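Lab notebook page, bench 4
Experiment: in silico fold of construct C2
Operator: M.H.
Input chain length: 318 residues
Purpose: comparison with the prior construct
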Amino acid sequence: MKVITGIISMLMLIFTSTAGDKSLIHSIPSKVDILNYKQAENLRIYPLTYSGTSKSFITLKEAIAKNIVIVKEKNSGEVNTVIIKNKEGYMVFAMAGEIIKGAKQDRMIENDLLLPPNSGWMEIDVYCTEHGRWHGESKQFAGAAINASPRIRNNARKEKNQSKVWEDVREQQEQIMSNNSETEAFADIYESISYLNKRDSYYEKLKNLPSKNLSIKGVLVCVGDDIICLDLFASHSIFKILWPKLLNSYIVEAINGNMKGSVSIKDAKKFLKEFKRIDLEDEYSPGKGDLYEIDSYNAQGSAILYKGKLIHTDLFPN
């Protein structure tokens, strides 16, 4: 009888927690202000404020650089799994789409992750972003100052298919570089002359956006008359740290994107309201917090919460 009572209590706790998290996600439009856009070429960025707060965490790149976190191949190497260990007493935030470089091939983190302090070795899901290499370049992965593009992030979550990731990487290389690099590494786009020749016309105008207003915690990203994605954090400091790599990933979309038209503030507000219609589906996470896939008729994305507070959410139009 005690066992049954315990199970019922646990189920009620889970249900109550999920209901509260759903309410929080639905409340996002009432807690966000969309500020005047910043424009560079065909890339329009609407800065977002957010009245919700959360603790700030160390980012994955910083944690790897300081030897707080170690990331290695699992056994002799598995394409879609790596092992990770947090050696110290900090909570570490890894964002979906963050790229880790080296080992047998570059990978990107599949889902947002809160890596607990002194975690011991844990397995995490990843996607390969370098199709043409399978040999040891280093014993451990290094952090990288790059994220996969929004298209790759979104399609990876929707399709959950490694071949689709490789297809998207190959396509974006062809669009920007006019060919494919030797190992078809997504990182090669950022090092290509064709990307670097176009990058500054975007980057220089937008690089200081987080410093202009300490209330900014996210952005709604538009290319021409297309909404590309929304990234929102509950911590300005995390957003500011991740901004350079996020901006570069948005520029990849802009270089390939629609040059005509623009997204109005009215359209931006309409997209933001999709959060009011979102359904949540629990997604397994090996780390701390509650990870969800979120979905409405017109949009889909993800959200990670910790102790009832938003850490990060992204949203992409259907």
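Observations: The chain has two domains: 31-55+212-317, 58-194. The chain is about 35% helix and 35% strand.
Next step: discuss at group meeting.
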